[in-house]
Structure formats: structure tokens, C-alpha cells
Design brief:
Chain A: It is found in: Cell membrane. Chain A: The chain crosses the membrane at residues 30-49, 90-116, 128-149, 226-247, 284-304. Chain A: Belongs to the binding-protein-dependent transport system permease family. Chain A: Residues 91-303 form the ABC transmembrane type-1 domain. Chain A: It is a multi-pass membrane protein. The complex is a heterodimer of chains A (314) and B (300). With 314 residues, chain A is an all-alpha fold. Helix content of chain A is 71%, strand content 2%. In chain A, strands 1-2 form a two-stranded antiparallel ribbon. In chain A, α3 (76-83) packs across α14 (282-310), α4 runs antiparallel to α11 and α9 (206-214) packs antiparallel against α10 (219-230). Chain A is globular and about 75 Å long. Chain B has 2 domains: 21-57; 80-294, Orthogonal Bundle (MetI-like fold). Helices cover 68% and strands 0% of the residues of chain B. In chain B, α8 (189-197) packs antiparallel against α9 and α10 (215-231) packs antiparallel against α13. The chains are: A mainly alpha (314), B mainly alpha (300). Chains A and B meet through α1, α2, α4, α5 and α6 of A and α1, α3, α4, α5 and α9 of B.
Chain lengths: 314, 300
């Protein structure tokens, strides 16, 4: 690699002043470009783009993981997926999970950011505490909360007891298991949302707030008419990123419920894992993965199209 | 973060004697401030109590878990749960695996992203825009669509239960490349041009000018990658079923019992072992980490 230094330097001196006006490609530049960008691009092609294409192909096969026999079935897997009696529940669970974690996350995160943006003693520590769970392993967090949710002697059942409320059977009854995971997901991810909102709040120009105050706007009016519209791009960014990570979440479900009871916490992402690696139906799992990919693309595209127009960039 | 502008809305200047104004302000602010502090303390408790609970529970003996009323402090701070973790799974080996894979994975990711972004921004070739879009679009491709094809590739290569099997498929850096590119575009063009005129080739410009000017971004991308690599679960779980090459989060799930009777003390001890290292890194370097996560979110 060091061999490049003298020759590249020489060529740069020779043609430096006019290099921008001439669009002729110099072989040395080409070589250096390939050397620097090549490995990363090659890895992306091999481990991101190749599997993307291959997954579409796999989704047309009746094929089990590790087996040598594969039968081409066209859209058979998709037909089966759409007619499967489990599909409505998986879609509903996925939708409930995504809407509550994204919506709840944005609301609580914004509230937390507004609070931590106040001039309060100790808010630096509060910010640290709010954000800490975000960096922790989903598996460890899942296990910790499993213990807190333990219906017999978990912290939460005791706390509920103080109010005279009995603890629900979180692990084994249908709506509660999903609610439990949503709560833990929010606990873990709220700090991220709050942090991004906080950065956005601090970018709001003070003279705009002053102008609003001069016009007689109170705190809440200033927030509604000045601050929140200016947070548009941030909200937009968060909507996309939190939606993508919510739809792809896996660790917590794996650590806490394994998709149960009776599939009530099986999201589309979890279904791909179960079908692909537990039942071993790789073709069918690839069809679910493709459906999820199309949903993600559609949501991202829709958000880009619809919201981009309503977002005010300052 | 905390050096930022602190603002409370300034009251409209009206002709009241300054002393009275301050007093009135104090009177209206007091209940609001009280409520704000209360909410803040509540938020701190909600976020921290579970973690404190985990650390305390990791020292508790089995009978203490069934005690009513609840005991906050363990009766004695002995390490029997940790000893039991060590006797159930090769925790030392897993810890080393995790440390090694995290350092290697994050380091390579940063180097690959840095090199790729430099090429995209500073080297003039006709197809560099295409390469950038290739990187950008990769950010939108979800991991789950890649797992089955990548798994079969790794299995065909005979890389199941190997370090390279865990490491290599995740190395490509789309996020890092993107952040580095955004940062490079903001570098003062005059410095780069001066270096070029002085005869510094691309290789020297990268190491002598671009890298030193990008230390904060490099630190931020490194930290984000370290956190991601340390916590990665799904892929290492699929690729390893052997405790020799297994990483810590995967090993953790081996401790969960199948019949539902959890030994919480052992599980909390193991969870503490997974969370403490990354929590420490976070506490020491949180500003840099935060800078990395918020980069591109607000300005972009």
C-alpha cells in the first residue's frame, strides 16, 4: 500500500491545478478508488444485495434449510402465507407492536426531551439515566424485566399489591404478554427518541421564541405554533428510524416470550426466524421476509412522499 | 450536550418595579418547578430502579427471591451466583469471544467506512455517485431479509461456529460510510486544496489531513459500532451452537431453564456481566456516543 504514496503524489503535483476542469479518468485514481471503496462495496454486494436478490428466489422454492432438495413452486409460498389462518394474527400483532412502540415512543420521548430541556439542577444525570438502557443488550434487558414481571415475587407484582391490584399472569395470558414486551421495548428505546428530540429542541432559534413571547404567546402556544413545527424534520427522521427498528426487533421477544403464548407475541420478524430456523421452512420464511421488506419499503416510501411535503425545514 | 443554550422564555418586558416582578416570577415558577423536579425524579427512578434491582438481585441467595415482603438489599454480598454462572457455562471464554469480536468488528467497520467515504468524497471517478447510492440504499435493506441467504452461504463455506462466520457478514459499513461522507463534505476545502498543491497524494491526504480532522466523528462511529457489536444477538445465535465460539448474549440464553423455573439470581448475575462493560463505556464516553447518534438526525 505504501507503494502508492510516491506515484500518487507525483501525479497529483503534475496536474493538480486543473484536475477539476478535466473530466478524464486517471487510471491511478481509479485504482485508488477501487482500493479504498472496493472492500466495503464488495462486502455490501456480497452480504446485503446478494441475499436481497437470493431471498426473492428462495421465496419461490419449497425448500427446507440444509436440505439439497428444492422444488420450484412459483408464488405458492405467498399464496400459502396469505391464506394461512395464522397470518391475520401475525399482522395484527406486528401492527399493534409497531404503532404502540413508535407512537408511544415519540410521545413519551418528546415529553421527556421537553422536561430535560428545562433549566433544572441534575438534568445532566437525568439525561444519562434516560439514555443508558438504550445501549444495553436486548437479551439482558429482557431477562431483567422478566424477573420484574414475575407474577409471584417480581418487583412489579409487589408494587401493584401496594395499590391493591393483583398482578396479571404476564407470561402466559394473551394480551398481557404483548403489553409486557411493549412496556419493556419503550423503556429501552425512549432515551434514544428523547435524545434526538433534545438535540432538535436546542437547534430551535431563540429569536423565534422571543418573537412569539413578544406577540403574547404563552408556553404551550409557543410550543404548538413555533417549536413543534420546527421539530418537523426531527419527528420525520424519528418516525422512519423507530418504525424500522420496531418492525425488526427480535431480542426482547426471544428473551421474554419466544413468540408465545399461542403466538400472541409473534411478529412478522419473529415468524421469519421461527419458520426459517425452527421449523426449517426456508422457502416459506423467505416469502414472509419478502412481505416484510415490501411493507418496510412501502412505509418508508409513503412517509417520504406524504410527510416530506408537510415538514418545514428551517 | 450540557454546554448548550439554556433558555426559559423571557417574560415580556413590562413596566413593573424589578423587585416585585422577580417576586411574582418566583411565586408562579415555584409550583411549576416543583412539578418539573418531581417528574424528573420519577423519570430517573423508572429508568434506574430496574438496573439497580438487577445488580442487587445478582447477589441474592435463592430463598431470598421468594421472600415477602420484598428485600431490597441482599443478606450478604457474596459471589455464589457468579460462581454458579461460571460453572454452568464457560463464561470467561464467552466474555473473551465477545471482547475480541467487538474490537475487531468495530475496528474493521470504522476502517472500511472511512476508506469508502474518502473515496466517494475526494477521488474523482465518474461512477462515485452510483457507489454512494449503493451504500445509501443498503441502509434501507432490513437485516431479516438477508439472514437466510447469508446463513446458507456461511454454512456452505464451513464457517458455522467460527469467528469469521460471526464477524464477516456484518462488516460492511453502510451507516459509518454515510456519516463519514456527511462529515467529509463539511471539511474546509481550502485545506485539502493546499495539501494537493503541496504535492500530497491521496494516501497522505487521507492519513495526514482527513483522519486528524475527523477524530470526533471517528470516535462516535467507533462507539456506536462497539455498542452494536457487543449486543448483537440474532446472527451469532444462528451461526454458533458451540460454547467455544459463542458470544456473551447468546450464552446468556443458555442459562434460561426450559421448565420455566428460573434461577433468578444466576440469570441476574449473568445479565450484569453482559451489561456492566457496555454501561461503563457508555458512562465514560457518553458525550461522544451521543454525538454519533444525533449526527445527521437534526441537521440532515
Amino acid at each position: 500500500m505504501t507503494a502508492f504514496t510516491p506515484s500518487a503524489a507525483a501525479s497529483a503535483t503534475a496536474s493538480a491545478p486543473r484536475s477539476r476542469s478535466r473530466r478524464r479518468v486517471r487510471p491511478r485514481n481509479l485504482l485508488l478508488f477501487l482500493l479504498l471503496a472496493g472492500p466495503n462495496v464488495a462486502l455490501l454486494l456480497l452480504f446485503v444485495y446478494r441475499p436481497l436478490v437470493l431471498s426473492f428466489y428462495y421465496s419461490m422454492l419449497q425448500w427446507n434449510l440444509g436440505s439439497n432438495i428444492a422444488r420450484f413452486v412459483g408464488f405458492g409460498n405467498y399464496v400459502e402465507w396469505f391464506t394461512n389462518p395464522d397470518t391475520p394474527q401475525v399482522l395484527l400483532t406486528t401492527a399493534i407492536f409497531a404503532v404502540t412502540t413508535v407512537g408511544g415512543g415519540l410521545l413519551i420521548g418528546l415529553a421527556l426531551a421537553l422536561l430535560l430541556n428545562q433549566k433544572l439542577v441534575g438534568r445532566g444525570i437525568a439525561r444519562t439515566f434516560a439514555f443508558a438502557p438504550y445501549v444495553l443488550s436486548g437479551i439482558a434487558v429482557g431477562m431483567l424485566w422478566l424477573y420484574i414481571f414475575d407474577p409471584r415475587n417480581g418487583l412489579l407484582s409487589v408494587a401493584l399489591g401496594w395499590f391493591g391490584v393483583g398482578s396479571p399472569q404476564w407470561y402466559t395470558t394473551s394480551p398481557w404478554a404483548l403489553i409486557m414486551i411493549i412496556i419493556v421495548y419503550l423503556w429501552k428505546h425512549i432515551g434514544y427518541v428523547a435524545l434526538i428530540y433534545l438535540a432538535g429542541l436546542q437547534a430551535v432559534p431563540q429569536d423565534l421564541r422571543d418573537a412569539a413571547a413578544l406577540d403574547g404567546a404563552g408556553r404551550s402556544r409557543t410550543f404548538r405554533s413555533v417549536v413543534f413545527p420546527l421539530l418537523g424534520p426531527v419527528t420525520f427522521f424519528l418516525l422512519i428510524t423507530t418504525m424500522l427498528s420496531s418492525l425488526q426487533s427480535f431480542d426482547l421477544i426471544r428473551a421474554m416470550t419466544d413468540g408465545g403464548p399461542l403466538g400472541s407475541t409473534t411478529t412478522l420478524m419473529y415468524q421469519i426466524y421461527v419458520e426459517g430456523f425452527q421449523t426449517g421452512r426456508a422457502g416459506y420464511a423467505s416469502a414472509s421476509a419478502t412481505v416484510l421488506f415490501i411493507i418496510l419499503l412501502a412505509i418508508t416510501g409513503l412517509q417520504l412522499k406524504v410527510l416530506e411535503r408537510k415538514v418545514h425545514y428551517s | 450536550m450540557s454546554t448548550t443554550l439554556e433558555r426559559t422564555p423571557t417574560p415580556t418586558p413590562v413596566a413593573t418595579p424589578p423587585g416585585r416582578r422577580r417576586q411574582r416570577r418566583l411565586l408562579t415558577r415555584l409550583p411549576i418547578d416543583g412539578a418539573l423536579y418531581l417528574t424528573m425524579i420519577l423519570a430517573i427512578l423508572v429508568m434506574s430502579v430496574p438496573l439497580i434491582w438487577m445488580f442487587l438481585a445478582s447477589f441474592k441467595e435463592l430463598p431470598e427471591f421468594a421472600q415477602i415482603p420484598l428485600q431490597w438489599l441482599p443478606e450478604s454480598f457474596d459471589f455464589s451466583n457468579f460462581a454458579q454462572v461460571a460453572s454452568s457455562i464457560p463464561i470467561g471464554r464467552m466474555f473473551l469471544n465477545s471482547v475480541m469480536i467487538t474490537i475487531l468488528g468495530a475496528g474493521l467497520k470504522v476502517i472500511l467506512g472511512l476508506a469508502c467515504a474518502y473515496a466517494i468524497v475526494f477521488i474523482d471517478v465518474p461512477f462515485k455517485k452510483t457507489v454512494f447510492y449503493l451504500v445509501l440504499f443498503a441502509l434501507l435493506i432490513p437485516g431479516q431479509i438477508t439472514i437466510i441467504p447469508n446463513y446458507t452461504l456461511i454454512a456452505d463455506l464451513g464457517w458455522l461456529n467460527t469467528y469469521q462466520g460471526i464477524l464477516v457478514p456484518g462488516l460492511a459499513s453502510a451507516f459509518g460510510t454515510f456519516l463519514f461522507r456527511q462529515h467529509f463534505l463539511s471539511l474546509p476545502i481550502s485545506v485539502m486544496e493546499a495539501a494537493e498543491v503541496d504535492g500530497a497524494g491521496h494516501w497522505r491526504r487521507l492519513w495526514r489531513f482527513v483522519v486528524p480532522m475527523s477524530v470526533p466523528t471517528i470516535a462516535a462511529v467507533s462507539l456506536v459500532s462497539i455498542v452494536a457489536e457487543w449486543n448483537e444477538y440474532l446472527w451469532p445465535m444462528l451461526v454458533t451452537d458451540n460454547t467455544r465460539t459463542m458470544t456473551l448474549p447468546v450464552g446468556l440464553t443458555l442459562l434460561q431453564s426450559l421448565d420455566g423455573q428460573q434461577n433468578w439470581g444466576v440469570l441476574m448475575a449473568a445479565s450484569a456481566l453482559v451489561t456492566v462493560p457496555i454501561l461503563l463505556i457508555f458512562l465514560i464516553l457518553q458525550r461522544r456516543l451521543v454525538a454519533g447518534l444525533t449526527a445527521g438526525a437534526v441537521t440532515g
